[in-house]
Design a protein that fits this description.
alpha/beta; 23% strand; globular
């Protein structure tokens, strides 16, 4: 059974996001928030990225889920509400439906159109689960609707997306989750720091799917800002920043470019960069400390043999 979708009107979204996009584009070091990567096309492109052999997080996390599913399910417990943050195609959450047996499923993502399509397919397969999806930018504020029971909430945040946040932002999000989990908890996937060669092929793959995903943010920006970015004038760049323990994604201008939108413009010199994403990598100790700082009291951790990735249940 499916509860009606909650979403924000697209015109309102554009209006709300214009100042944020402008602030990033007009800064000395230009940037675009990574949330704008996940428009409907970007969401499909990211799904394609997860199928690449070079993109280790998806398969590594999947293997951890499969190997330790019984232990994870025992830690989390059955029933209640499964709240899927950055749900995407909902497949990861679906893999736990049989073992966790949630009575309610709330899927949250930035791209509500893509999310609705995924949820429509799920609803027919699991008529006994009450399903709802919400289009939400939870990078700013996480608001769980009153229709969701306050007890036995399990927040599900797989795929290492926490790494997109600066440490202070990650702490803010985790604190919000902790305050709304009540007697439940958080099941989260985090990427661990590793050698540069593995990171670079994951974020700059030979098929250039990641490049297409990154470049699509310019089309997404055009749709919100009514700007005139041309994808062919930029190229995808990935860098490993050891000082900050993260991979950084940029778009580099291939020529001198003037980008304009109603009332404003910005010139990008050849070689100038637009920062589009950070992907922070953790150690076991650093993620445990972050969760404790957010107010979680206990953690159970599962990793792969290479220690590439960790799945954590925090309560």
């Amino acid at each position: 059974m499916q509860i009606p979708t909650s979403s924000t009107n697209s015109a309102t979204i554009d209006h709300d996001f214009i100042p944020e996009i402008e602030l990033g584009l007009l800064a000395e070091n230009a940037s675009i928030s990574p949330k704008f990567l996940y428009d409907p096309l970007g969401s499909h492109l990211f799904t394609a990225i997860t199928l690449l052999p070079e993109y280790y997080p998806t398969n590594t996390e999947k293997n951890i889920f499969s190997q330790y599913k019984d232990q994870i399910s025992q830690a989390v417990g059955i029933g209640g509400t499964l709240i899927d943050l950055g749900a995407g195609n909902c497949q990861k959450a679906e893999s736990f439906f049989e073992s966790l047996k949630p009575s309610n499923y709330l899927a949250i993502d930035f791209s509500v159109e893509y999310l609705q399509d995924a949820l429509n397919k799920l609803a027919g397969k699991y008529p006994h689960i009450l399903m709802q999806c919400i289009g939400m930018d939870f990078s700013k504020q996480l608001i769980i609707p009153d229709s969701i029971a306050p007890t036995k909430r399990t927040f599900f945040y797989p795929g290492s997306s926490l790494g997109n946040f600066l440490p202070s932002e990650a702490l803010h999000l985790l604190s919000q989750i902790k305050n709304q989990a009540n007697d439940g908890g958080l099941l989260i996937g985090v990427d661990l720091m590793k050698e540069d060669a593995v990171l670079m092929t994951a974020y700059d793959d030979p098929l250039k799917v990641t490049a297409a995903f990154n470049l699509n943010i310019l089309r997404s920006t055009n749709s919100h800002l009514n700007s005139n970015f041309k994808v062919e004038q930029f190229r995808h760049v990935a860098k490993v920043n050891h000082a900050e323990n993260r991979v950084e994604l940029y778009l580099e201008a291939l020529e001198n470019v003037i980008v304009s939108w109603p009332g404003k413009s910005r010139e990008f010199k050849k070689g100038e960069l637009i920062h589009t994403e950070n992907s922070h990598k953790y150690t076991i100790e650093s993620i445990k400390q972050l969760l404790m700082s957010a107010g979680f009291e206990t953690t159970q951790i599962w990793t792969d043999p290479k220690n590439y990735f960790a799945v954590i249940y925090a309560k």
